Amino acid sequence: MKYERIPLGPLQTNGYLIYENGRALIIDPGGEPGKLLSRIRELKLEVEAVLLTHAHFDHIGALEQVRDELNCPVYLHKEEKDWLGSPQLNGSGVFPGIEPVECREADYLWKEEGEKQVGSFFFYLFETPGHSPGSVTYYFINEEAAFSGDVLFRGGVGRTDLHGGDQETLMKSIHDKLLVMNDETEVLNGHGPSTVIGEEKETNPFINGFGW
Fold it and tell me: Which residues form a coiled coil (predicted)?
């Protein structure tokens, strides 16, 4: 399995293209649909689904164009069922200068964590709320790759001052779901460079400051 990080949209949110044997998943199409679709055509991929780590505007900015162009289903956690169509919930109606983002509902809602299959891809779904109520992490076991959205960054953690955010919940998610992974696990997050679990245990001041 291969994966590529593609920064997208006004905040350069990391979207991801995961592919194998001509089939693919998209994680968080945050903007610039042409850029994403061009790469998909270049690689001659058939996209089986869009997986959302959460429904903040900078992670869904290109969702409608991508889902219509590729005719593929969208997956989102049930806690954010109403966020795609609400600028107030997804944050696009909160920040000056940001165009309101309104999308149709997801086709499928995650209701619990566990082993999942979407198309030809297998992964483990972790519920990792705190940055937002429905934040999830997609963990591909064989690759030791965790696509975590805005939960854990290199040297930082997700903000909790947006709708439904909670710092204590976020830190519990990080400690109980992410830091128990192998130290070599790559964390492919929503902004900036990737990191690995072992490095964050050692150097992340937010984690160390919380008594890890």
Answer: none
